[in-house]
Amino acid sequence: MSTQAPHTAYKMKTPPRTMTGAEAVVASLLEEGVDTIFGYPGGAIMPVYDAFYDYQDRLRHILVRHEQGAVHAAQGYARVSNRVGVCIATSGPGATNLITGIADAQIDSTPLVCITGQVGSHLLGTDAFQETDVIGISMPVTKWNYQITKAEEIPAAFAKAFYIARSGRPGPVLLDITKDAQFKTLDFSYEPCIGIRSYAPYPKSRPDDVIAAAALINSAKKPYILAGHGILLSQAQEEFAAFVEKTGIPVASTLLGLSALPGDHPLYVGYLGMHGNYAPNVKTNEADVIIAVGMRFDDRVTGDLARYAKQARIIHIEIDPSEINKNVKAEVAINADAKEALLALMPHVQKRSHDAWISEFKALDKIEHEKVIVKDFTLPENSIKMANVVERISRKTKGEAIIVTDVGQHQMVTSRYYAYRGQDNNVTSGGLGTMGFALPAAIGAKFARPNEEVIAIIGDGGFQMTLQELGTIFQENTGVKIVLLNNNFLGMVRQWQQLFFDRRYSSVEMKNPNFIKITEGFGLKARKIEHPSELDGAIDEMLAHDGPYFLEVVVEREENVFPMVPTGASVAEIRLE
Amino acid sequence: MQKKLFTIIAFTENRIGLLNRITIIFTRRHINIESLTTSECEVEGVHRFTITTRTTKERAVKVVQQIDKLVEVIKASLHEEEETVYQELALYKVDARQIAENGLFTAFLNTIKKYDAHIQTATDDYIIIEKVGRRVEVFMLLDALKEYHVLEFAKSGRVAMTRSANDLDQYLRDVEARVAEEAHEVGV
Ligand SMILES: Cc1ncc(C[n+]2csc(CCOP(=O)(O)OP(=O)(O)O)c2C)c(N)n1
Ligand SMILES: [Mg+2]
User: Fold this and answer.
1) B12-22: buried (b, 16+ CB within 10 Å) or exposed (e) per residue?
2) All residues with CB under 5 Å from ion ligand 2
3) Which of A23, A67, A131, A391 is the catalytic position?
4) CATH class, range A2-196
5) Do A164 and B71 touch (CB under 8 A)?
6) Do A322 and B182 touch (CB under 8 A)?
7) What class has domain A207-361?
8) CATH 3.40.50.1220 in chain A, residue ranges
9) pLDDT tens string B42-98
């Protein structure tokens, strides 16, 4: 349902073949239809790397420059392809370097299988060289993990890992394989996992809930839909658009829900949350019925929970039962995958329109336009603003490029001004807010969809967290476009210091290196612009370039992102300046 | 909301590390586990956790949902005091010489009888008493034994059963049927 099923050709149990555990790892990956894997070798995983040598024609291994790059690349790959992303690292430091990305994937429901080597099983627990308890460390941030200590466990463990990663609410899984299990031999035969008795990934909507939800929707005067990541994960964009168009209900999106409904759809009213649009936030506290689809009422969306949508009767469509009533109490909950729930609801909802209600959004849009957007877009004489860059890229790519953002002001500006209208074309680190995510995630996305434009929009701070992955781009000639919005500040932190800490700028200004020399050193075509007059030409040049391209745009140093719901405030108290 | 003592019962696969996965759910939310007992149950290969915790109903419900969500947890449920039958087991070691020297043997035996406990083992040096009961009863006996000099005291966590005729075996058969049906639906 959520992510693709294993390669159909391997439905049948394959006849046994004797091989090493290391080869069985590769064979299991092939059985699951994996053709690309991101990783970095080392002592405890060397047998598997040796097995890769014989399978280079079927399994492409992308050598990253740091294991964090491997896991973020696997995330980027998974996010745009609806396939399971796979990464591999050695024990100890290799394994711990994966943790940030695993935590990111866990909170953003990204299907991953992460493979780590481990010291020989006789050395477990002895503080052997490069031994780390990665099972213990990764436990809180994985959907499931497992330590393989015997070669014969490999096929079943991999089958289970892929099944768990992709089914239900997707998430990261880690398999830790001791070195002896890689060396020993087994009779390999593969049987895909088709279910686990302790795990119910596909809850079915209950007819009573569907009827109750439809009744609420049909009688609502000011209904409002909040679209979340779950719509994309269940590939329900079409069903969602049909539902929205039939019910005529305005739709706002969470950060990870962007692209669930095209940005230019007449019923799309904007983006929710801390730096979202004005109307979508304010109207949350005026709607009479809220239909939340595949979203989890994160605090960045709700602001002060005690003053969030108290007037509204809430319908929550959610696959993960532990998310229902976690933050916001639902009057009706449909515990099901978004696609299934929308299909079930469809025959019971009436065709309606809500023009007067939608025009209320439009009235507030005008205020936001006057107070924020006009300012954001006025191109100053001698400097460029982030919004100018994003808006032009949006226009020139027709909203169809895969946009990978890092974390900070540039991320919020991009979410506000890129008119996403592609299929799964928004990749960002939402729940964890991991700086350094964008560059490697963009590499992964490009491997998954090589024929599409992949543009990473990154801040000068975040770029310096994982810029070693330029080496991966160099080696693979990965055609990603990198747009560095350089304000010479950790801009988002600076904004908070300005607004909430009396402008006491503490460790937020950066002495930046010559990014052009750096990127040229890695073989990228690179250009730096500072003047508005150069903007159009530079973006055109970047988009026309066949191959990796780095565009540094020097932007205004102390711009602030508005609107903003300050911490502790209600969504209705969103500030415009 | 008021804090109360809740009993959580979870049936799980018998897997290394699962105890850890369960306890970090409490740790992360800064909720204390009052007692935790784990053992085999009536179905082979299935383990049973009995956990007591003092918290609000709302938090207890959320903790149980998180436990239930773990891939290898078959079923987790939350129970208030009235809904369960529960017991704890306690062992007390008292100083046999002191009882003998002070001529307290009769009084000591009457105490044990009064609290419905019994003697497990006796040597010239010590006597070990065993008591099954609820937590308060176990501690009342501890108090009463103080005058005989308690050398050691140990008690188990709670073991509990619900007051309903659930059948885990049937439940598992239903689950396995569901798994097979789902597998059929997703076309694997
Ligand atoms: C790994 C990590 N460390 C720290 C932070 C806190 N943080 C959030 S935004 C931000 C500033 C980002 O600066 P930059 O990359 O230059 O982007 P800008 O806000 O200037 O666009 C920081 C430090 C974070 N999100 N992630
Ligand atoms: Mg910056």
Assistant:
1) bbeeeebeebb
2) A 459-461, 487, 489, 491
3) A67
4) alpha beta
5) yes
6) no
7) alpha beta
8) 207-361
9) 899 999 999 999 999 999 999 999 999 999 999 999 999 889 999 999 999 999 999
Which regions of chain A are under pLDDT 50?
1-11
Name the token pair of A60: 């492409």
Residue A135, chain B, CB below 8 Å: the answer is yes
- Tell whether A1 lies on the interface with B, counting CB pairs under 8 A: yes
pTM: 0.95
Structure-token match 């003053």, residue found: A307
Contact B182/A144, CB-based, under 8 Å? no
Which residue of A136, A195, A326 is in closest CB contact with B179?
A: A195
Instruction: Please give the pLDDT value at position B4.
Output: 95
- Across chain B, mean pLDDT equals 92
Contacts 24+ apart (CB under 8 A), A524-527: A524/A470, A524/A473, A524/A474, A524/A482, A524/A548, A524/A549, A524/A550, A525/A549, A525/A550, A526/A550, A526/A551, A526/A552, A527/A551, A527/A552
What pLDDT, on the 0 to 100 scale, is given for residue A522?
98
Statement: residue B188 has pLDDT above 60: no
Amino acid at A414: T
For the segment A403-459, what is each residue's pLDDT rounded down to a tens digit?
999 999 999 999 999 999 888 899 999 999 999 999 999 999 999 999 999 999 999
CB atoms within 10 A of CB A66: 20
Minimal-distance CA residue of chain B relative to A11: B188
pLDDT confidence of residue A380: 78
Does the bond joining A347 to the residue before it have cis omega, within 30 degrees of 0?
Answer: no
Q: How far is B1 from chain A (nearest CA, A)?
A: 15
CATH of A381-554, one of 2.40.30.10, 3.30.70.640, 3.20.20.300, 3.40.50.970: 3.40.50.970
Q: What is the pLDDT of residues A54-101, one digit of tens each?
A: 999 999 999 999 999 999 999 999 999 999 999 999 999 999 999 999
Q: Does A141 touch chain B (CB under 8 A)?
A: no
Chain centroid to CA A235: how far? 15
- Catalytic site residue from A435, A492, A542, A564: A492
| Whole-complex ipTM | 0.91
CATH of region B4-84: 3.30.70.260
Q: Where are the domains of chain B?
A: 4-84
CA-A492 nearest atom, ligand 1: 19
Chain B residues bordering chain A (beta-carbon distance below 8 Å): 12-13, 16-17, 20-21, 24, 28, 62, 65-66, 68-69, 71-74, 172, 175-176, 178-180, 182-183, 185-188
Residue with tokens 């100083």: B95
Q: Residue A65 corresponds to which tokens in the numbers above?
A: 């420059």
What is the A491 CA–ligand 2 centroid distance (Å)? 5
